[in-house]
Amino acid sequence: MKPALRHLVRRRTLLRGTAASLALPAVCTRAQDDFFTRAITLWVPWPPGGGTDLSMRVLAEAASHHLSQKVITENRSGAGGTLCMPILQQAAPDGYTIAQLPQTIFRAPYTQKVLWHPIRDVTPILQLTGTTFGMVVAADSSIKTLEDVFTAARKGSAQGKKITIASNGVGTTPHVVIEELFAKQGLEYLHIPYKGVAEQMLGVASGQVQVGVGSTAFGPFVDNGKLRLLMTFGEERSKRWPQTPTLKELGHGIVATSPYGLGGPRGLPKPIVQILHDGFRAAMLEPAYIAELARSDQQLAYLGPEDYAKACRQAYAAERKIVERLGLMRQGG
User: Fold this and answer.
1) Which of 80, 238, 251, 278 would bridge with 171, disulfide CB 3.0–4.6 Å?
2) Full DSSP string of 42-100
């Protein structure tokens, strides 16, 4: 073992407590000196102010304490949440550059030409949670149900004007779900992609677009009466909006939650992975982070490095089947 790694192992973070418990924060004890000697950068592939961005900032602050080193969040939004991949691909495998890994990174290589690979170029660290998605319209819209959306789409097509539907980006999970829904109904729509949910929901609330699909970062707009929630994409009804049906419940057989976690560059040494895992594992059990997730109707869905790596491989394989079924495979893909 190289001296640097031997030094790293000797000084690594140790977690105490019951790892299986998700109700109580883990206790992290450390040696007086740590491996990291400067700030760690956590890249978030969404705009500032959105639900994921806010939860990542809370997580980073908590992890800073457990790692005894500042964790700084930086945003690189656009391209459906995939712009952190070139950063990881080019970063040194030293633990100072990590990123949130959204589901879209496993889909994008099948729908467009990219220079990175979501399995080859990433070292998974841990899975954090999953996203609850839903469909919303402006509070004063005449659309009150999913069937009303289909009816509006039919009327619009008959008049030569497609219904407008906004998502948080081309190739994102909400976009793929809408593609599948409308394909099954034999309907068309005009897709309006936004870089993030916050900007997108303002577009829906103001009437710039008729319908929005995205993560439950739309929650504040629903709760303050500016948006109407038509349905969610989860396995079960949302605890936050129990009166709202799921897409599966409405008979469409679709469940979409897009679990996500953190990853580092290719070749990140296992001792560094373990240090980052332990620090962020302790951080994700902090009450502040759990409370922030709850604001977006999310719950913890922890996986360690090996299990998360396996889940990433499975997600990449599963996305190919979805993209092929929807006819979205890029030419030569």
Assistant:
1) 80
2) EEESS-TTSHHHHHHHHHHHHHHHHHTS-EEEEE---GGGTTHHHHHHHS-SSSSEEEE
Asked if residue 135 lies in contact with residue 203, where contact means CB atoms within 8 angstroms, the answer is: no
> What confidence tens digit (pLDDT) does each residue in 126-164 have?
999 988 899 999 999 999 999 999 999 999 999 999 999
* Three-class SS state of 249: helix
**Both tokens of residue 323?**
């993209």
Q: What is the DSSP letter of 26?
A: -
Cα 9 to Cα 48: distance, rounded to the nearest angstrom? 35
Write the CATH number for 69: 3.40.190.150
Summarised one tens digit per residue, pLDDT across range 96-136 is 999 999 999 999 999 999 999 999 999 999 999 988 899 99
Provide the b/e sequence for 269-296 (b: ≥16 CB within 10 Å): bebbbbbbbbbbbbbbbbeebbebbebb
CA distance 120 to 267: 9
In angstroms, the CA 314 to CA 297 distance is 25
Last residue in a domain, options 230, 252, 274:
252
* Separation of alpha carbons 19 and 33, rounded Å: 24
Q: Are residues 73 and 141 in the same domain?
A: no
Number of domains in the chain: 2
Here the tokens at position 95 are 């633990």
The verdict on residue 295 lying in a domain is: yes
Neighbours of 37 (CB within 10 A): 8
Q: Report how far residue 210's alpha carbon sits from residue 213's, in angstroms, rounded to the nearest whole number.
A: 11
pTM of the entire predicted model: 0.77
